[in-house]
Amino acid sequence: MLILGNTHPNEPSSFLTTVLLIENLKVDKGTVYILPRANASALSHNDPQEGSPQRYTIKTPYGERWFRFGSRATNPLDQWPDPDVYIHAASGQKLSGNETRNLNRAYPGRSDGTYTEKVAFAITEMVKKNNINMTIDLHEASPEYPVINAIVAHERAMPISSQVVMNMEFEDIQIGLEPSPATLHGLSHRELGDYTNTYAVLMETANASQGRLRGRTDEALVLTGKDPMYVKAQKIGRLFVPYDENGHPIEERVGRHLTGVVQHIEVMGENEPEKEIILEGLPSYADVMQNGVGAYLKEVKEPAGK
Fold first, then answer.
1. From the CB of residue 194, how many other CB atoms can be counted at a distance below 10 Å?
2. So what's the pLDDT on residue 95?
3. Terminal-to-terminal C-alpha distance of the chain
4. DSSP per position, 249-280
5. Domain membership flag for residue 305
6. Residue 306 has what pLDDT?
7. Its domain of life (predicted)?
8. In a domain, 246, yes or no
């Protein structure tokens, strides 16, 4: 199993979920790889003219821990200039030029390509060489985006993901299921499924801080997901996810991702016992909602002498 976080570092539940996994997960059987900074370059800057915070802070039993809030795209210091039109190398698909720095439009990547294509190539090769059975790419989406609070699955992963959706809804977690479009190229759930033997899956939660209809973009919006502009948008039918004054807090979003990861592992093992992975140490969705994300983060101490 491979879990990708920070494909888009302006989607914080992705990063926090991988951090929580790294700091709590115990694997009793099988192997779990976690890349918390899939695009580390994109974590080193913000999107210009978006007014995004540089960081956000999570309260823990040991004090506060801060995490960087990044960009959807590779830092232009690492890859520049953008072409007028981005041509996906493997398919010839044409997209807007700035998508050349979007890791989730670069798969399967190229060893001699741009920075972003090289990162995609490295991840693809990692999946191949380690014979990784399943890859889950964690994301967030703006409330007005149609594919939200959903799983997007490659056709070979669809039998597993469809059962995961039922299991999550039995736990009162409403989640949609979308097939990976066969003609939309460069995305992890399409190309990793086509170019490797992995079951390729992507998961989305609702993040108001990256939406086009949002109001003030600050740390509070990142963490609470509360925005009166989106409450108004919900009332006039402009959103694809329920939205009220409670917003969609980080606890909900991390809890959804954790539950989805665990359910995919369990269903894959039930369907194919030779691919079984046994985990322990992770909180449930209810635990995260009740206790908060910070309750499951470890204490970070300054190195001696500082």
1. 18
2. 98
3. 37
4. -HHHHHHHHHHHHHHHHHHHHHH-GGG--EEE
5. no
6. 61
7. Bacteria
8. yes
